[in-house]
Write a structure and sequence with these properties.
Layout lengths: L29 H8 L4 E6 L4 H10 L5 E7 L8 H4 L11 E2 L11 E4 L5 H7 L6 E4 L9 H8 L6 H6 L1 E2 L2 H9 L3 E3 L3 H15 L8 E7 L14 H4 L3 E3 L7 H13 L5 E8 L5 E8 L6 H11 L6 E3 L17 E7 L5 E8 L3 H15 L16
Parallel strand pairs: 1-2, 1-4, 2-3, 4-5, 5-7, 6-7, 8-10, 12-13
Antiparallel strand pairs: 8-11, 9-10, 11-14, 13-14
Helix pairs in contact: 2-12, 7-12, 8-10
The chain binds NADPH dihydro-nicotinamide-adenine-dinucleotide phosphate and N-acetyl-L-glutamyl 5-phosphate (X2W).
The site of N-acetyl-L-glutamyl 5-phosphate (X2W) has 10 residues, from β10.
Length: about 375
Amino acid sequence: MLETARHVRPLSLRARGSVASSPRKLFSPKAAAAAAKSGDGVRIAVLGASGYTGAEIVRILANHPQFQIKVMTADRKAGEQFSSVFPHLTSQDLPRLVAVKDADFSNVDAVFCCLPHGTTQEIIKGLPRHLKIVDLSADFRLRDINEYAEWYGHSHRAPELQEEAVYGLTELHRDDVRNARLVANPGCYPTSIQLPLVPLVKAKLIKLTNIIIDAKSGVSGAGRGAKEANLYTEIAEGIHAYGITSHRHVPEIEQGLTDAAESKVTISFTPHLMCMKRGMQSTMYVELASGVTTNDLYEHLKSTYEGEEFVKLLHGSSAPHTSHVAGSNYCVMNVYEDRIPGRAIIISVIDNLVKGASGQAVQNLNLMMGLPENMGLQYQPLFP
Ligand SMILES: NC(=O)C1=CN([C@@H]2O[C@H](COP(=O)(O)OP(=O)(O)OC[C@H]3O[C@@H](n4cnc5c(N)ncnc54)[C@H](OP(=O)(O)O)[C@@H]3O)[C@@H](O)[C@H]2O)C=CC1
Ligand SMILES: CC(=O)N[C@@H](CCC(=O)OP(=O)(O)O)C(=O)O
């Protein structure tokens, strides 16, 4: 069993606040905060409500005292009742699913956009400017639109919105998110990877070379649209790698690490599809900087996330388990000494649909509306 030598040399370094340094247009949260304080609360539209992340937003908002869903959209399922698409979610008084082109945003304050990549930028471009938007797709995550074109296979169709967007890895970009109108919610793999690695890179505790990441996702990460490769017959009782050396989350992760390092970081990243409904584990192999111990990494992460409600470090040699975060907004991590001298292993787990998508989106919109960040998110994981 792996054992970490703890209690060696606590570090005082902390990595709070924004790691992004590019100038952003600020948006006053006053009007939004006023709406939140009015009797109506914040009026919400969920675009793509008939998909997995849209449904997860609806599930979370059932316990949110300030966010009320007024508009819900779908594509193929437009015209249907939400309760006929998701019969398990009936506790709220919800509007019928409509096509985006038929949605009325005049009585809406904020939007969760849970649509496919590419389509999203076209749709957000057409939305009224009074709306605050949290976009769960990848459309506004990459600052460099040339890099976007390279990885997503087409040129960006809303570069002016890309300029405005703020990357919403909440714990690391809180101040930017608070003042944003449009937030690009991070991808699930980038969330599970950047939460541990960005503070370590920023504090120069690990080398920028030889960062190797092996990650595994539940099948809901691929969305609800039927694909042959995601059929039960092809997924059950197996595991397989995909996107080897070419997954589109590589530039997103490298962007965050490069910002933190202020120097280009290149990673090895291999995602795998696991036979489970939800959950994600990232196992990261890193090289310690000169004079740094595994315990230094642990202590630095511990002090970075001290007081954070949703990021937890385990004690001793305990291993994070996807069941310890299922259905919750937590990211749980731990650090281990490798058998190879000078190397460490870091493991993090999240629920891809919650901290990896809809939970973090609600966390971000809470901040954008001047509400407590944890509002509606204080539920515990489902275990076993
Ligand atoms: N699943 C996950 O774990 C994560 C997903 N994301 C991202 O979030 C976004 C949503 O993902 P997810 O919920 O999994 O996807 P789903 O495939 O489950 O849902 C997609 C939704 O978008 C609607 N839709 C599809 N095409 C169009 C279109 N052309 N115009 C308007 N609406 C359309 C669908 O409607 P209908 O059902 O009627 O066809 C459905 O409501 C994606 O960008 C995804 O990459 C981000 C992090 C994690
Ligand atoms: C299992 C699976 O297919 N996962 C998706 C990632 C889902 C996600 O986080 O991210 P995006 O918002 O960037 O799509 C994938 O690998 O493309």
